[in-house]
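Record type: monomer structure entry
Structure origin: computed from sequence
Chain ID: A
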Amino acid sequence: MKVAFIGLGVMGYPMAGYLQQAGHDVCVYNRTTDKAHQWRLQYDGKVADSPCEAAKDAQIVFVCVGNDDDLRSVVLGATGALAGMAKGSILVDHTTASADVARELGSICAEQDKGFLDAPVSGGQAGAENGVLTIMIGGDNAVFERVRPVIAAYARCAERIGEVGSGQLAKMVNQICIAGAVQGLAEAVHFAKCADLDVAKVIDVISKGAAQSWQMDNRYQAMIDNTYEFGFAVDWMRKDLSITLDEARRNDAKLPVTALVDQFYSEVQGIGGNRWDTSSLHARLQYFNKKKVL
């Protein structure tokens, strides 16, 4: 299938690569052209000078950028992807963005006889690199069924949640769960250090019981070692939580823990941790602890 992929960040770069390796004819666009040419050399695909050019003749156009404004900038306008897409083609947005922008783009695509799916992903950089992402999808079921076998190239789970916007709402649920789990793990590791326990041994034991979680399995060592140089950055997590809290104000959901963890992440940013990964909530506890358990 002829496809386009717009946005070659830590997620999009390997995702586009998996599409090319699966036998699809992939044309990519990235604002940083060096990154696009690096991808072409690695995967032997094509590079375009604009989203419009990348989308020309593509049956499916995938987008994975930073936020609502980034998304509009590469989709709308004379050089945007929609300008190059033919009727009957499909726009799949993997950006974690607002449900509002998903509905906006879904409406525009419908007016132009083009399909649209909001399809945010979970699994982080490692999930993208290993081709095992989880994808939450909003949109028409017939459109989803056309796209499902293609995104299987980089997803171990892709499920339609409901109509346009539902994928983004489901991703907000995902981030709510993660925020609480990471904070709980950070406090647990911090407590174990302050109690002079063998933290790794404690985690090994409790991970075999009811406390076990993906965060525990994959993030406890970073907290023990105080290394926060991989995974999903704090700046991006704060962007996601901001979207989630905005939506909660609209639908009257009460998210006290999520709001508190968002505040904690702002404090991580305040001590220079903007690009640290999300497990750096533990660094915040150590920084403000009088014992300075480092």
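Annotation 1: Residues 169-288 form a domain with the N-(1-d-carboxylethyl)-l-norvaline Dehydrogenase; domain 2 fold (CATH 1.10.1040.10).
Annotation 2: The radius of gyration is 20 Å.
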